[in-house]
């Protein structure tokens, strides 16, 4: 692959260890060459059957630009930027209600330069020295909308009827986000805030709404779970929007994964169709970290921390046993981020198996043969397997859960059974210990890093709704908080790039060969 850099920008990201070139021209026809760890957006272009195509890489997410666009002209950079800008334009209430006029924000910010009023007993209180965000402010090459409080807002706080709903599986930090949404709504002057019980099912009105106030949420972040409850499945979009209308909800905060966001976007569209003024704002929740564009989603950091505890226990068990083999199954239906990061964090994993990397168990290049080598050379081995890994090796499970997600076959149990069988067959003793910490990981409270992330996301969700956006979600990209149109972030799950430096670091740490 030949590649020519034509411009640089120093963009720093917490996730990444480098400063990255911004634009790069490449003649590689292969889609597999990308730099998922490059930051700030790396533009790479190659010839594809005569028409130029372009990739933008944003914080480990790879997005193909509109293939219909002709980037062959010399001003491809401008064209690309315009195309990207168009795709990331945010739906706004004024798209529907053109006569809406904003009012000065009720969210008070202190001035940047302190005045004598800001001193109390000689101390300067400057915790809110911050500025309002301009609607033109963008992050990542100035195309993605910056999150934060706007000077003008589109709701009178007295008219706001806000609701919060948490859907899908549990995730550390849900209570932190709920808490911060409530606190921020109150800071704007909102009085009517409720929680919808048990996810979208709560819209079918079997259970009463949960009244929320600063007092009610003050300490909820001290425990895991969601005080509102969660669920999968539930009523269809029309029924949900009927319920939104009947309850008079005009700000809806939706905390959930890709399914929840698909629902939120459908609700936003249905509200538009009915011409009702409702701001639907999502906060992505997934311990799997499988949402596009975001540096990370809340709960992921905590999940990794908990997961590496399970791995360390597996190591101690395996290491203490004669020919011990510790096998740990971690969550990750389509993406192996938890398994990869926990393996790296622990440093004790010999084999890390993720959905993105095919492998065989049997045969000369299989996992089992390598385990035999490990127990015979170092005395023990640890395997970390993501739940979505190796599904092609298993008998297909049939059916879906209440939300329509495919039920996966259990790769953890399969690896355990096959390992026991293999060692018995070859007459080598092996003491196999299995740990599945799945729900222990999900149910814990958020750690400090996630607590901060949840706080900022919760605040920004409220700022986004007051700013008049709807059908959007909030995330952190290249360390900046930004708003995204929902369809862009859920178009497909974010996957571990097996050509990335991070996956290679993981392989270096485990020392595992290719199992193909
Ligand atoms: N395409 C869709 N359109 C409308 N609603 C959906 C869609 N997919 C899922 N939902 C609804 O969203 C809710 C949550 O979906 P799901 O159970 O798939 O969890 P999720 O949000 O993807 O979170 P998790 O990461 O835990 O799987 C459910 O109530 C489900 O009915
Ligand atoms: O057992 P539940 O609640 O359906 O959740 C399992 C799913 O949750 C996830 O962690 C996503 O939140 C997936 O990786 C996993 O398949
Ligand atoms: Mg999902």
From TrEMBL:
Enzyme Commission numbers on file: 2.7.1.11
Catalytic function, reaction form: beta-D-fructose 6-phosphate + ATP = beta-D-fructose 1,6-bisphosphate + ADP + H(+)
tRNA processing listed as a keyword: no
Gene Ontology terms: biological process: fructose 6-phosphate metabolic process
Nucleotide-binding as UniProt keyword: yes
Coiled coil: none
Cellular localisation: Cytoplasm
Pathway(s) annotated for this protein in UniProt: Carbohydrate degradation; glycolysis; D-glyceraldehyde 3-phosphate and glycerone phosphate from D-glucose: step 3/4
Main location as per UniProt: cytoplasm
Regulation: Allosterically activated by AMP.
Binding site for ATP: 169, 232-233, 257-260
Site keyed Important for substrate specificity: positions: 259
GO CC list: cytoplasm
Keywords, sorted A to Z: Allosteric enzyme, ATP-binding, Cytoplasm, Glycolysis, Kinase, Magnesium, Metal-binding, Nucleotide-binding, Transferase
Cofactors named for this entry: Mg(2+)
Family matches, as InterPro entries: ATP_PFK (IPR022953), PFKA (IPR050929), Phosphofructokinase_dom (IPR000023), PKF_sf (IPR035966), PyroP-dep_PFK_TP0108 (IPR012004)
Catalytic-site annotation from UniProt: 288
Domain of life: Eukaryota
Function: Catalyzes the phosphorylation of D-fructose 6-phosphate to fructose 1,6-bisphosphate by ATP, the first committing step of glycolysis.
UniProt family annotation: Belongs to the phosphofructokinase type A (PFKA) family. PPi-dependent PFK group II subfamily. Atypical ATP-dependent clade 'X' sub-subfamily.
PANTHER family in the record: ATP-DEPENDENT 6-PHOSPHOFRUCTOKINASE 1
Cross-referenced HAMAP family: Phosphofructokinase_II_X (MF_01981)
Protein name: ATP-dependent 6-phosphofructokinase
Organism whose genome encodes this protein: Dendrobium nobile (Orchid)
